Amino acid sequence: MKIRKMLFGLMFVLFWVQNGVQAEPAQEFVLNNGMKVVVREDHRAPVVAHMVWYRVGSMDETNGTTGVAHVLEHMMFKGTKKYPDGSLSKIVAGLGGKDNAFTNTDYTAYFQQIPKANLEKMMELEADRMENLQFKDADFQKEIRVVMEERRWRTDDQPNALVDEALRATAFNAHPYHWPVVGWMNDLQNMTVNDARNWYERWYAPNNATMVVVGDVKAAEVKKLAEKHFGRIKPKKMVPTKPQVEPIQKGERRVAVKAPAENPSVVLAYKVPALKDVEKDSDVYALDVLATVLDGYDNARLSSSLVRKDQVAIAVGADYSAISRGPALFVIEGTPAKGVSVAELEKRLKQEIANVAGKGISPEELQRVKTQLISSQIYKRDSMFGQAMEIGVFEMSGIGQKQIDRIIEKLKEVTPEQVQAVAKKYFSDDSLTVANLVPVALTEKKK
């Protein structure tokens, strides 16, 4: 998933500052049981985005039960004694709303988008399943088959997904980013309903959750409703996962994946910092700008040079997200044009970063990059769901949504010299993992 392009890159929030549009400041408070609530009032339409985020994801799993965070997400829709047999989604739909959930390496979140009059009902439903989820073995057996099929069609039958999975498994040895969010198939095949129940009992508690509400609401009223429905739930003793620090990489790593595909491809992933300290971690802002210089708009360097000008690639990309509980990767990738080898394209991708390291970027290019990126993100300011996502991601990362404005200021201060400096500093082959997709004929798939 191209997280930086979809939402979680830092620079998209520049729109608010440079275009004079100020978002309503979010208000936050903590219930007596430790549950955090963040509310942003947005009165443009009588609708609300309601989300409950749990600060637990696949990085909190252990070998043998990989994928359990995602499996539990599925089980959360199966019902409670009060709302049995998957009735929650039917209730939401009947009230004119829609609901869903998603699991990430760092968190799991559940959401509803509903008319504002139905917000209290959503809180009732979420509080009920936070506390009273049922675990019927028949439900689990059905859902584990669904998850295994999901793994098949989203990963096992998708060459690019297999490459990404192999890349991360090679780049990370000790850190649990090593395994995929969906889990290894063998772990899914041997998972039990008790594994899901144990995960729920360990992590699903108000003091490990953050509620985010964005829309046509009053913060004081949301607080009263949160206290009414969630405030009575008892907190749990949270036993954090042990730190699994990734050892320093001391040499280039390579992996090849053979899969049915029309074209080969190459993906290069460099170990770079994630944002942990907003004031001190200045390199992350320059790295985000560098990613945008390479692949942040239609005429960015990778596509302009390698696709249109020299025609050595038919597709290229760059991806970096500094918002992460764990370590970060800076990824560049490409699919070679006919007659161009993967090795040649890899060389050219590296050369684009070397060009920035050697020659830098001009102030004009820096400003053009920011302007282009802002333009591409304007529509997201009209999305209440997008605002709720932004708040939730920053909260789950440990940075906190209150730091967003400061991050904007830090990004505005990035200079061409800083971009050139990070291009020199972080792109050594010693921190590089390369994954190649090697196409095979469809008849070779089962060999």
What does this entry look like structurally?
The protein has 447 residues and is α+β, with helices and mostly antiparallel strands. The chain folds into two domains: 227 residues, Metalloenzyme, LuxS/M16 peptidase-like (Cytochrome Bc1 Complex, Chain A, domain 1, 2-Layer Sandwich); 192 residues, Cytochrome Bc1 Complex, Chain A, domain 1. The chain has 17 helices and eleven strands. The protein has a six-stranded mixed beta sheet, sandwiched between helices. Strand 4 and strand 5 form a beta hairpin. Helix 13 crosses helix 17. It is globular, with a radius of gyration of 23 Å. It starts with a helix and ends in a 7-residue tail after the last strand. Keywords: Hydrolase, Metal-binding, Metalloprotease, Protease, Signal, Zinc. InterPro entries: Metalloenz_LuxS/M16, Pept_M16_N, Pept_M16_Zn_BS, Peptidase_M16, Peptidase_M16_C. Its EC number is 3.4.24.-. It is an enzyme of class 3 (hydrolase). This is Peptidase M16 inactive domain protein.
